[in-house]
Design a protein that fits this description.
Layout: H1 2-48, H2 54-62, E1 70-74, H3 76-81, H4 84-91, E2 98-102, H5 108-116, E3 127-131, H6 148-154, H7 157-162, H8 166-177, H9 186-198, H10 217-225, H11 231-235, H12 245-261, E4 264-269, H13 274-280, H14 284-299, E5 305-309, H15 331-347
Parallel strand pairs: 1-2, 1-3, 3-4, 4-5
Length: 352
Amino acid sequence: MSSHLYILNFNIINKMQSHTKVIIVTFIILICTGLGLSINRDSFEKLSNKSYATPVISYLDLKKTNDSKVIFLGSSRIFSCIKRDLFSRLSGIEQSKITILWSSGAGTWEELLFCRKNSDLLNSSPLVIIEVGPWMFNKNLFPLGAGETAFLTWSTFQERLEFPNLKMRSFLLADYLYPISQRRTLDEWDSLIYALIVGKRPKIYNPDDVPEWHYKQSAYEKIAADPMFSVRTQISQLNHYEFAEYKAEYLKRLIKLAEKKSKNIVILQPPLRNEYFEIINSYPELFSAEMSSLSFIHSLENKNVHSILWERPEDCGLNDSVFVDYGHFNNNGAYLFTQRLFDKLKSLGLIK
């Protein structure tokens, strides 16, 4: 009887050990697969056009040599307020050497990403202009910038470790080991494999594009009426404001990177509609948030780092008529702002 029990126990133990081995091997395979995807996720995302930053990164990848003389980095606001043709005429710099890189809703991380993904971007540029806004430093604002997929795709392992929220940090680390952002349907994988075979790429970011609402009335009316771009909606990005050190660190890293290769860096805050600051001045928390961000920006200034912080349009000789919504510029406003900015840069001796 005892021998039968021994044999039975032995068989059970063997089965348990076999199951454990299967689990361990499966886990190792998943980890290896995940790491393989992580290593190659840049290529996958460029081909699938899934990330907000992908078109810009694709443009950078295709531009093997970059001889820009002025680089603008920021969100759709920087895209809306700089007229490349006018800046070219005023400065004598060819339009092709004036680069504007932007991502919808971009924050300090996306701005760093543009330069990090192309180490040669800053090599020949004597002037780099970086857009900022107080919302960029709010710890309690949606933490991953313009889109979660972009951060999942392009963030480094270090940036995932630095993320302040423990729950999200765990999720980001798990995604690195087995990329959740790479999970797709069979049709998506089929399309991706086809793209890999035939070399198909997403629509390439065109730096010479101008905002549609600058020349199309229907687009102008659409963005002007969009509640997402109302002053009230945008001011909500400062609610429960808490200064985010990790977001500030992204900007510091970008400046450090630019200082190594560029002659001058300008931190630029384009103005916003007056109503925006009227609301800020009415609420102590919002006013404190604005002052915190301005104080931080001023702390970064040195002989190579300058700031141009225009809060209201009147600060640069303009008025609310330059805006479509809370802060995107119309066509005429963009020309006026470009002129004011050029004059300011020239007065600071940052451009001829």
